[in-house]
Design goal:
This protein is an alpha+beta fold and about 525 residues long. The protein contains 13 helices and 24 strands. Strands 14, 15, 16, 19, 20, 21 and 22 form a 7-stranded mixed β-sheet that branches. A 5-stranded antiparallel β-sheet has the order 1-6-7-9-8, covered by helices on one side. Helix 11 runs antiparallel to helix 12. It is globular, with a radius of gyration of 25 Å.
Length: about 525
């Protein structure tokens, strides 16, 4: 089975990233036991398989550990760069070497200084562990080299001016066992773990300033039902969408939903090699006939997007957007492609060398997601109005993947989770590892290559516009929506709650608890 991998975006040749930093000392952070009984935010996560931030396979554990460890950059709610441990970066002219400078004055939780050595160690550690969830982030990195105490060079196997958008993995301290020592640079540091919970206390020497609450306690949950009950009863103060049964969990008026993009891109894949969708005009017609706002309603809070990049991202060019529903245009395109109701049976046909063909196809979907099955039926309705005859076939996951890999489909309803927000090469290039549509174009390949290799902002912007234009003209896939995620908070949680796509607790240092007694907080 082909491996689903990520996406990334354009980078500026030199972009200095500054953040407010508080004064720090070389002394270890003090932990005051008397404050542990008050102002503690209770959260949840699945029972951890490991507390190693690079090796855990559980999303809720990764989310929790990102408030202990920190990345070089966060990807914010607009899919832009938010510097954390990084200070600035620059690429050489052909984007095969990136020089990164990290912040000075940052301390590990044990009081030692954070340096370039820790970044080199972390990168090598991930590259040596293919099972790491962050392994794909560094596939283009051949090696890293320390240039000074606060500067590192990344040497790449191919031009990749997008690398910086994949550097959101947690940095660990040189030569430490991350699953045991848990020494990070983040706003919270380890207090204890007892097999039932992970207790953290605030880092008084955090390089980004004062932490709003005194500590965080992650309660281990074996099931989503346990998380829902704990949140509903007030035992925990916030819960992520990942832990909820979103179809059956009732959100109360007193709860606040903090939404952000998830990076899960839903699309219709076409068989561009054979069948009716080998004609790009029919792919264009199908894309224009889909009302993406209706699809977004099915998924709830989803963001319509005909293009495989989030519309709100800084790389997006609105003039090329394809989310507008245009049924009349879809019908015109079908007519221009030669399809007619020649025998007045209300069905469109076309005479070819092989005989008379009907404008009919099967839309393949998997039964693993009930919302996706509903979306397939809604798409059928839209395309039927345009003149297509559509049969939805819902199969189990193994059959679904086998059919797609073997090319035994006309169209399929698919989804890809972008671990990084912008690298479209793997879904759109001729040899892309998630190009299941068999679409091949040297023009598209060149545009993708230009986009990835240009460290110049202006040149990359031009390449991106070319890429979008070609996408719209040939429609290799029909984008539908980007799914969203959220953090749900109780009325006790105050302050700035702003989840990021790959870090739901990114702003937790700004959270506080109000109107709650200390026995309730514990």
């Amino acid at each position: 089975m082909k491996k689903l991998i990520s996406l990334i975006l354009i980078t500026i040749l030199l972009f200095s990233l500054c953040a407010c930093e508080s004064a720090v000392t070389e002394e270890p952070t003090e932990v005051y036991e008397e404050i542990w009984e008050k102002n503690i935010i209770n959260l949840q996560m699945r029972e951890p398989d490991t507390l190693d931030p690079h090796l855990t396979t559980r999303q809720s554990v990764r989310d929790a550990l990102l408030i202990v460890y920190e990345p070089l950059f966060n990807i914010d709610e607009l899919f832009g760069l938010s510097p954390v441990l990084a200070q600035s970066y620059a690429f050489n002219e052909n984007a095969t070497v990136m020089t990164l400078r990290v912040k000075e004055g940052v301390l590990w939780h044990n009081g030692q200084s954070f340096t370039a050595d820790d970044v080199v160690y972390t990168v090598n550690r991930i590259k040596e562990n293919p099972q790491s969830s962050y392994y794909a982030n560094l596939e283009s990195v051949e090696r890293v080299e320390k240039l000074s105490n606060y500067e590192i060079a990344f040497f790449l196997s191919e031009s990749n001016a997008l690398l910086v958008y994949s550097l959101y993995f947690p940095i660990v301290r040189t030569n430490t066992d991350a699953s045991v020592d848990m020494i990070g640079t983040g706003p919270f540091m380890l207090k204890e773990t007892d097999g039932k919970s992970l207790s953290l206390v605030k880092n008084g020497a955090w390089h980004l300033g004062e932490v709003g609450c005194d500590g965080v306690k992650f309660l281990y949950m074996r099931t989503g039902e346990m998380a829902q009950e704990a949140f509903s009863s007030g035992k925990i103060h916030a819960v992520t969408k990942e832990m909820l049964d979103t179809e059956n969990f009732a959100i109360k008026e007193s709860h606040t939903k903090h939404i952000c993009p998830d990076g899960l891109f839903e699309f219709v894949g076409f068989n561009a090699k054979q069948g009716i969708f080998s004609d790009p005009l029919l792919r264009i017609a199908a894309s224009n006939a889909i009302d993406r706002k209706k699809i977004a309603e099915i998924y709830s809070d989803a963001i319509p997007s005909g293009f495989p990049i989030m519309p709100s991202s800084s790389a997006f060019t609105p003039s090329f957007e394809t989310t507008d529903y245009n049924l009349d245009y879809a019908k015109e395109v079908i007519f221009s492609a030669g399809w007619r109701d020649a025998n007045y049976d209300t069905k469109l046909e076309k005479t070819t060398a092989e005989g008379i063909s009907n404008l009919s196809f099967t839309l393949l979907a998997t039964n693993t997601d009930t919302l996706r099955a509903q979306a397939a039926e809604e798409i059928k309705k839209h395309l039927t109005e345009a003149g297509f005859e559509v049969r939805v076939e819902v199969v189990d996951q193994q059959v679904y993947y086998e059919r797609i890999e073997n090319g035994e489909f006309d169209a399929f309803l698919g989804a890809v989770y972008y671990d990084d927000p912008y690298n479209m090469k793997d879904i759109l290039s001729s040899n892309g590892r998630i190009n299941y549509s068999f679409y091949s174009s040297s023009e598209m390949d060149f545009a993708l290559s230009e986009f990835a290799s240009n460290a110049s902002y202006d040149k990359a912007t031009i390449a991106f516009s070319k890429l979008q234009s070609h996408y719209i003209a040939y429609q290799p896939v029909a984008g539908l929506v980007f799914r969203t995620t959220y953090v749900l908070t109780s009325p006790y949680v105050q302050g700035e709650v702003s989840p990021y796509p790959y870090s739901p607790y990114a702003n937790i240092a700004k959270w506080t608890l109000t109107g709650i007694e200390s026995d309730e907080a514990e």
